[in-house]
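We emphasize that the prediction below concerns an isolated chain of 185 residues; any contacts that depend on oligomerization or on bound cofactors are therefore not represented. The input was used exactly as deposited, without trimming of termini.
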Amino acid sequence: MIEPIVGFLMCGLVMLLTRIYVARFHTDVPPHPEFERWVAERPVVLALQCEPGRAVDVVYRLRAALGKGEYFNGAGGYPWQHYIVTFAVRSIGDDVVGLEVAHARLGRPNEQRPSLNALFDRLGALVAGDTRALWMHGKLKRPGIRPVADREKMGWTGHFDAAGDMELAPMIGQPTWVSAQALAA
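Result of the prediction step, given as a token string:
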């Protein structure tokens, strides 16, 4: 007579442990070591060329907009969409501000973070009047723009239009105002 009670308890325990595993430990994909090595270098993935003397204001506005800095890049190519990425803002040269990847970790299926595209959509309203140009790393991708052939060597360059939207065109390398030393620092 005790067997049915034990059976129900065992089923309940299995369901509880499965729920804990999925919530705390399960990921949709295994870690991607190449992506994690790239992130460990703290690459600059977006650079803004500011009007003279406006870089400090842009840095502070971007830091405030980033909040905790954790974003989900659902539009990015593999493995971006499986990682929760933390971004940081820093000055990378004279009147140039960079958005760098500070940290990335595999996201859990039930974890919710703001979309990186939502930040990009607000970016124009935040800094359009204080910037002349922008450059975006080829590893980023955004709806409405085509992917580039070689994500390591190519990216996008452009500006903000009057409405604050990004106007982008593919580019090989980086603009002259984004120095290689600044990206590596």
